[in-house]
Amino acid sequence: MTTSQSLPSVREAVRRTPAYPFTPIDARYKLDQNENPYDFPEELKVLVWERVRSAEWNRYPDIHADHLREVIGRYEDWDPKGIVITPGSNVLIQKITELAGIGQKVLTVKPTFAIYQLEASMLGANLTQVPLNPDFSMPVEDLGRELAAGGPGVFYVTEPHAPSGFLDDRAAVEAVLEAASNSWLTVLDEAYHQYAGCDHRDLIRGREDRVLLRTFSKAWGLAGIRLGYALTTPALATELQKLVPAFNINVLTAATVEVALENPAYMHERVREGVAERERVYARLSEHPTWQVYPSRTNFLLIRTPDASAAYRGLLERGLLVRRQDSGYTLEGCLRMGIGKPHENDAFLEAAFELS
Ligand SMILES: *Cc1c(COP(=O)(O)O)cnc(C)c1O
C-alpha cells in the first residue's frame, strides 16, 4: 500500500491510520465475519420486494428515516425521538467519535473491536485502552481510575465483548457505567446481545450521557442491508442526528428492516440454533489437544492455537475461512471462528482435529 508523503493535503492522522484490516477471500465455508449463516427468509424477501416496488424511487426517502424510527421504537419500547439510525452501527461509532471524541478523549479496553480505535485515530482523539483481565472480563477498578480522571470524551463498552465473546456480570457493567461521570459519553455496544440473552436498555434509559448501539447485521441476518441504531435520550439524539447526513437510509434498507421487525420469529429461531451450535462446537473443541477455546456468549468462538498462521492456512486448505486475531493485544495464536450451519461446524471440527 502506498502512503503519505505524496498527499500533503491529507490530514496526518488519516495517513498514519491503517485501513480496516480485511481481505476478501473465497472459501467453501465462510466463517470469518460473524454473519448469520442463513439468508433472510425467501418469503420475507418477497414482502420487501412488494414494498420496494410500490415506493417512488425518484423521491428522497424520509429525512431521518422517521417511519423506521417509529417501527424500531415500538419494537424496542423506546421513544423514537431518542433513536438515531445509520447504514450499519459502524457509522454510529464514527459519528459518536465526531460528536464527543475529536480533540477529546476516547477510552476503551484492549483487545477490542477495531473500529473504536480506527475512528479515534483518524479523528485525532486521545485514545486510552485499558488491558482486560486474563479471562477477558472488564478491569472494573482500572477503568474506574481512568474514568475518575474525567472526560470530556467517549467511553466504549462492548457486551458481550468482541473479539473474545465474554459477557460480563451485570454488576460489573453497572459499576463501570456508574464510575463514568457525565463528562463521558458512555456507549454500550450490544451487537451480539441476542446470543447472550442480555439486554441493558434499562441502564441507558433516561440517561443523557449514555447510548446503546444495536445492529441488524448479526442475529437478524441482514449484514448486506446495512442498518444500525442508537438508543438514547431525545436531547442527545438531536445532537448526534446533526452529524448524520440527511436521507442516509435508502428505500430498500427501510423496507427490509420494517418487514424483519414485523416478522421476528425467524430471528429467534436462528438465535436458538446458533446458541445450541456454539455450545456444541465449544464442548467438542474443549477436547482439542493443542487448541484452547474460550467460552462465548456470541455467535463466534475465540480459539488460541500454537501457531495462528499455520492453523489459518490449514483450515483454508480444507475450505474453511476464519479470521486471524493474533495481532490483537494478548491474542497471540488466536483465530476467531463464526458459528455456521451445523454441517459447516462439523467440517470445522473435523479440520480442527486433523490439525492437532
Ligand atoms: C459486527 C459488529 C458491529 C456491527 O457493525 P455494522 O456496521 O452494524 O454491521 C458493531 N459492533 C461490534 C462489536 C461488532 O462486532
From TrEMBL:
Annotated EC: 2.6.1.9
A Pfam family assignment: Aminotran_1_2
Keyword Transferase: yes
Keywords for this protein: Aminotransferase, Pyridoxal phosphate, Transferase
EC class of the enzyme, as a word: transferase
Cofactors: pyridoxal 5'-phosphate
GO molecular function: histidinol-phosphate transaminase activity; pyridoxal phosphate binding
Gene3D superfamilies: Aspartate Aminotransferase, domain 1 (3.90.1150.10), Type I PLP-dependent aspartate aminotransferase-like (Major domain) (3.40.640.10)
PROSITE patterns for the chain: AA_TRANSFER_CLASS_2
Residue ranges constituting the Aminotransferase class I/classII large domain according to the UniProt record: 30-350
Tagged with keyword Ribosomal protein: no
Highest taxon of the lineage: Bacteria
Family: Belongs to the class-II pyridoxal-phosphate-dependent aminotransferase family.
Protein name: Histidinol-phosphate aminotransferase
